[in-house]
Write a structure and sequence with these properties.
By secondary structure, this protein is of the alpha/beta class. The protein contains 18 helices and 14 strands.
Amino acid sequence: MNVKKYKANYFPPPERCCDWTARERIEKAPIWCSVDLRDGNQALVTPMELDEKLEFFGYLVKLGFKQIEVGFPAASDTEYAFMRRLIDGGLIPADVTVQVLTQCRPHIIDKTLKSLDGVNDAIVHFYNSTSKAQREQVFGLPKKDIVKIATDAAKLIKKSTGDKYIYEYSPESFTGTEPEFALEIINSVIDVIRPDRKRKMIINLPVTVETSMPHMYACQVEYIKKNVIDPDSVIISTHPHNDRGTGVADAELALLAGAERVEGTLFGNGERTGNADIVTLALNMFSHGVDPELDFSNLNETIEVYRKFTGMKIPPRQPYAGSLVFTAFSGSHQDAIAKGGKYRKEHPDAKWDLPYLPIDPEDVGRNYDADVIRINSQSGKGGIAYVLEQRFGYVIPKAMREDIGYKIKGISDKEHRELKPDEVAEIFARDYIDVCAPIALKSFSFDKTDAEVLLSMRLDVDGKEAVIIGNGNGQFNAAASALKRAKGLDFTTVLYSEHALEQGSKSLAAAYVGLKRGDSTFYAVGIDPDIMTASIKALIGAVNKILRKA
């Protein structure tokens, strides 16, 4: 890799511009402008058809976008027809402003403006390339001629429309432009348009190609913000691309540096490596307690709409939206999440601070049971216990979790795959619940005196009926005594736990028993409407495991 052929192709501002570093977070939502229908659409292998663009436009409105760039009307018949369909069909809500894009070329400007006939309000976004590389390699023009291209376009648009529309100017390839020259051309355009506080002009500073780290872009934005003429009549906008993988960071730091508006796309779709991901940006704000003023409460629906119209897939580790981003396979993570969830139930009014989950999955329409804790060979005992409790109601005692955990993880490891919750429950039932061979309980009865309980059990032992008797200070102890005597076993009860498995008159009880014999502990579970029957079933199940090992 010939690293010597490269250099840093960006220009720091001529003065120190680092005030943005003192700001801790973004305090309010910016003006959002979706460019899915233009920047996002032109990045597709198969661009959207007219009806698809119309439907996608409606969904962007539903999400809460108040500014939507609908296309480049002079670029194709479909783009032009889309603009006309929106206007002629009365499909643009009163509180939504459409945006059109045009190069600084007279015939393109004329066709673009014609496409807007009859619109209530619009943003006319015009641009020309200003970077050193474009000036020298593409146009072969000096700076003054580049400025003239922009100001001539501004004069034509102003003459043709007066103050009818909102105007937006972009010095394309801003990040490769010397900040002093970018400021010169921006101020020259503003001087032509002459915006005011009631009808502000948008100055968009596009990261057409990411060439610097995000903090340098923030310094460039702050420099323009501080030195632009008539700043109270200007809205600074950002339009980051993602060549270095920091498009979201560029947008966030630009907002700290004074930008008030963000152009981006759902999930960052855009040419080359993509645009700033508005879903991530909005939910980052949400995670800090700032209302993003966009509705991503049903993120699964947003994903499906995006897939439908773009044909693109969401990577499983995409922030917030990926299928695995709320999922913990690691045992320590699962344990922390489970304990955090329990803590939250005990402190429902506390601010969100759950381990490993920056936001509540339910706030974006995700399901805890399906998304948060999933089981594979890396899972821990806490995660497996969480699944059994949340999905099936089994409150596994701590002493029993390791035994179950190794059983479940071992199967996942051997089969090299994730185990679904139903499979976990099936393994648990098979290996722990009502283990009834070689001994099965048929019935029992007891007599109680002041001193002790006398218990008689009728059993099926290897297909033959047997009756055994035991005594103790309670029914469970009496049953244990009977089994020890009948089978000549020596064991100690080290675990006993019980709980109601279901609510209502037909509720079931679950009992958990652990028996220690030698260096081994054997666990079993009994399920029955009667708690004592469930307890004896669990006891017999653990004894059966001892007998099987013997």
